Amino acid sequence: MADPIAIEPPVVPRVMRAARHSGYGAAHDVLEVVYDHPVPQVGNDQLLIHNRATSVNPIDSAVRGGYGAAYWEAIGQVVLPHIPGRDVAGTVVATGRDVTRFAVGDEIWAGTFSGGSADYVAISESWATRRPREWSDLEAGSLPYVALTVWAALVRQVGLTPQNTAGKKIIIPRGAGGVGSFAIQLMKAWGAHVATIVSTGNIEFVKSLGADVVIDRTCEDFSEVLVDYDVALDTSFGIEQKLLDALKSNADAAYVALLTPKLRLIDRHGLDKGQELGEKFFLEKVAAQRAFGRHYYWSFMRPDGEALAEITQLSDAGKIKPVIDRIYPLDKLADAHDFCDSKQARGKIVIDVGAAAPR
Question: What domains sit in the chain, N to C, each tagged with a CATH number?
Fold first, then answer.
């Protein structure tokens, strides 16, 4: 019998291509693509991923523009020069000594706080899972951040599960966007009745995702149509009260916001005072809604490999599909940020990190 062929581990370079910003401002003013950014070092519990795809989320563009800068820097999620990109899809090329669930060569996807707009990304083992078997690199790179944003809000905060969601009435504004298009699919997979609010051109699109009630925001006031709902997922500034008014009273209905005044208060008043005012505002809102027999939450994405594993199962069963609007190469990241700022994207804006780079 022939001896087994030894497989050489991949050679990892010392430097890599990355899109980054060293200050804050307009996309074309501050974003640059470099070829000599250091490849991240792998911690004991980390994976080094040869990354092939990421996406642009509104939070990426907002952070690049300076939104919440004091907060992000204080908690270490932004260290200048900063590489944006909160989605990772690629191959494991190195592992830390404490890693037990993955090996070099595994294909994974993950949500992270930054770093996706680069050839290599280091992430915690617990953030990753094996990617959906039928998805391309670009499809896998389109979805982790928005999927985990929805999961944190509706599963971790509100407590929805495949067992208790059937028949619940749920409002998902901006159903054509990245978060909304995923949330509609997840809730329909679990049997919910879903209402969404979109512009005229997106009506048929969200119906194709399974939305039961579609409000055309250009000519209808959803507050006159939507009543006695169980859950509202707030993805916009300025519609909180209307969403609250659409919820049932004294029936454990829940409002959960993805956009909160916390960072705006920090930008206006500084880190310490802004956080103090944000906490006070939140507790007042919780108490006010408790009087109506409702729950009030703010929610923030967190990396979660176990959640992505469940989403992988839904994908493999044909219940979830990525929705991609446009694809840009890494060297056009500034153009992708500009398109994100236009708020015209239907689904996700994907960055093809694996595309050949001009030199």
Answer: 15-143+322-352 (3.90.180.10), 147-298 (3.40.50.720)
Q: Is the dihedral of CA 209, 150, 237, 291 positive or negative?
A: positive
Confidence check: pLDDT of 2 > 80: no
Confidence of residue 147 (pLDDT cuts 50, 70, 90): very high
The residue whose two tokens read 């990772």 is 88
Other Cβ atoms less than 10 A from the Cβ of 299: the count is 21
CA distances, 327 to each of 83, 161, 354 (Å):
19, 33, 12
**Which pLDDT belongs to residue 5?**
55
Mention every residue, 6+ apart, whose C-beta is less than 8 A from residue 284: none
Give the residue carrying structure tokens 């994974």. 108
Residue 6: is its pLDDT beyond 90?
no
Q: Are 91 and 49 spatial neighbours (Cβ–Cβ below 8 Å)?
A: yes
Q: Which residues contact 18 (CB under 8 A, 6 or more apart)?
A: 33, 34, 37, 83, 117, 118, 119
CA-CA distances (angstroms) from residue 73 to 131, 139, 273, 300?
31, 30, 16, 17
Q: What is the pLDDT of residues 76-115, one digit of tens each?
A: 999 999 999 999 999 999 999 999 999 999 999 999 999 9
Give the whole-number percent of the chain exceeding pLDDT 70.
97
Q: In terms of C-beta density within 10 A (0-12 exposed, 13-18 middle, 19 or more buried), how is residue 282 classed? A: middle
Amino acid at 343: K
**pLDDT one-digit tens code per residue, 17-43:** 999 999 999 999 999 999 999 999 999
Question: Distance (Å, rounded) from C-alpha 48 to C-alpha 33?
Answer: 21
Contacts of residue 315, defined as CB under 8 A and 6 or more positions apart, other chains included, come to 132, 134, 135, 321
